[in-house]
Design goal:
Shape: globular
Helix content: 40-55%
Distance between the termini: 59 Å
Number of domains: 1
Order of helices and strands: HHHHHHHEE
Strand content: under 5%
Length: 190
């Protein structure tokens, strides 16, 4: 089960998705957990969750999912678990807070609060990470490759499958390099 949870490809696309999601949620989590980046810290944020009807243990789990989940996504450790935590957080945020404010963010300041468009984008990005894994440059990838008992991690730009070398047999005809050369045919031969 652990191997399956850590399995990933060596793909930069998933790395970018993981890092953007991780940095975004680490910063939001640090606001709630530590009061960094203009946040209020754990005590005040937990009080806000209580006012919304979310019990303190669940509020603490939500804050941990953002802070520790964001950090885990940045380093690429247990990324599927972290992505699942982010998805759960965003679903609760939409259902408890943002759905009553509509779809759009409050760019013009005319709504009572923020809509849920950001949350949908975060869920979509987290689903990509949940399905495909951490991608390149992650602890998950390093552990997954070592668990397969490879002598060294796969190089970044090596394709997933080795290409078959092609050798030129005759003008206009190509055959795999491992097979014998094809003799050129003369005009009029069957």
């Amino acid at each position: 089960m652990l191997r399956r949870m850590l399995a990933t490809t060596n793909d930069l696309t998933f790395t970018i998705a993981r890092l953007v999601l991780g940095v975004t949620f680490f910063i939001h989590g640090a606001q709630k957990m530590l009061g960094w980046f203009g946040g209020f810290g754990l005590h005040v944020t937990t009080g806000s969750f209580l006012q919304l009807g979310i019990p303190a243990p669940l509020a603490f789990l939500a804050i941990c999912a953002e802070f520790f989940g964001g950090f885990a996504l940045i380093v690429g450790l247990f990324t599927r678990l972290a992505a699942f935590g982010i998805i759960a957080n965003m679903v609760v945020a939409i259902s408890k807070v943002n759905s009553e404010n509509g779809f759009f963010m409050n760019w013009s300041g005319t709504q009572n609060g923020e809509g849920f468009e950001f949350h949908l984008l975060a869920i979509a990005l987290a689903i990509v990470v949940l399905i495909k894994g951490a991608g390149a440059f992650s602890i998950d990838e390093a552990v997954a490759w070592r668990s397969r008992k490879l002598t060294k991690p796969r190089p970044f730009f090596r394709p997933e499958t080795e290409p078959v070398p092609i050798a030129k047999a005759s003008p206009g005809k190509l055959t795999p390099a491992s097979s014998s050369r094809v003799a050129p045919t003369s005009p009029g031969a069957p």
